[in-house]
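R.M. (postdoc): so does anyone remember the format we settled on? I'll just put the structure tokens first.
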């Protein structure tokens, strides 16, 4: 499917005029970033000069992830803000669910973080490591929009990352490209047993999926394999096949509508 991403993003922000993208990081990183990803203005926000927004990002992140993956303040500073910048999508707090707003101590008029994404630069030039995607405003595609803008802002050519076999984020990640399954996740990660390491090649932009799914629910009989996302024997087998040189990919839409099945494609060449 051929898509014009600049047109997609300008139409997205025309439909959601209260959403504002931004790049939150250390001033020294500003000149390295693409602050007009896909033609959208993504103003740079110096974290040192915006402590309230930085704190709000930290608290919003900790609200989105459970205790196993809670973001320590020093990791936010040393591995997010200082090496690069976090992509933010802000909105008036009045758009958030009242319970979410209250937990963040915000009033309706305050600025809130609708969604955010961060990927850290790695030792491989052009490859970033996705660390943190979250959205506090479901069902408006905020996660997919901020992930795509942030990857472009970081000038990423490939993205590696860790996710869980049953995480709703698979619906977001697979819109950008197939997730090539790479390896199991080292044990100290809070959700190692339920997770895998993946890689997405970001060169194939024409394959990025911006359109709604064509049908409510896919005809599973005609698809590649659908694997029970909570069956550890089955997901361990996928990891074993990937380790033995088979190409194993999680492909769009990633997860079934009920969140129980993950869609997988196998091919022999690696
Ligand atoms: C993952 C996350 C960012 C997605 O948020 P979002 O972008 O607002 O998501 P949306 O409501 O737009 O839904 C995105 C897609 O997932 C689908 N979806 C949402 N919840 C789902 C679920 N439990 N099971 C299956 N699909 C689900 C939606 O139908 C939509 O699919 P579509 O784009 O094909 O229509 C959000 O759920 C989140 O913050 N989770 C907690 C933090 C986390 O686990 N992050 C991922 C780390 S890898």
């Amino acid at each position: 499917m051929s898509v014009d991403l600049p047109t997609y993003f300008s139409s997205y922000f025309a439909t959601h005029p209260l959403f504002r993208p931004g790049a939150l990081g250390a001033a020294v990183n500003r000149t390295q970033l693409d602050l007009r990803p896909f033609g959208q203005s993504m103003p740079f926000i110096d974290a040192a000069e915006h402590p309230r927004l930085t704190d709000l990002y930290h608290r919003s992140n900790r609200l989105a992830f459970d205790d196993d993956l809670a973001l320590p303040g020093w990791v936010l500073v040393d591995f997010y803000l200082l090496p690069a910048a976090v992509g933010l999508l802000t909105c008036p707090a009045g758009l958030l669910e009242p319970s979410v707003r209250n937990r963040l101590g915000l009033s309706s008029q305050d600025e809130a973080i609708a969604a955010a994404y961060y990927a850290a630069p790695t030792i491989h030039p052009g490859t970033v490591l996705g660390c943190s995607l979250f959205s506090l405003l479901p069902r408006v595609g905020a996660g997919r929009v901020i992930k795509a803008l942030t990857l472009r802002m970081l000038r990423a050519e490939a993205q590696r990352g860790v996710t869980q076999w049953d995480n709703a984020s698979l619906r977001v990640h697979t819109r950008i490209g197939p997730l090539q399954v790479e390896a199991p996740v080292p044990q100290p990660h809070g959700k190692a047993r339920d997770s895998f390491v993946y890689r997405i090649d970001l060169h194939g932009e024409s394959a990025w999926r911006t359109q709604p799914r064509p049908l409510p629910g896919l005809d599973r009989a005609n698809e590649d394999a659908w694997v029970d996302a909570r069956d550890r024997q089955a997901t361990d087998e996928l990891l074993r096949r990937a380790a033995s040189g088979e190409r194993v990919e999680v492909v769009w839409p990633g997860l079934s509508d009920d969140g129980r099945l993950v869609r997988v494609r196998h091919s022999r060449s690696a």
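R.M.: ...and that's the designed sequence above, right after the tokens. Also worth knowing: The first strand starts at residue 20 and ends at 25. The CA atoms of residues 163 and 169 lie 8 Å apart.
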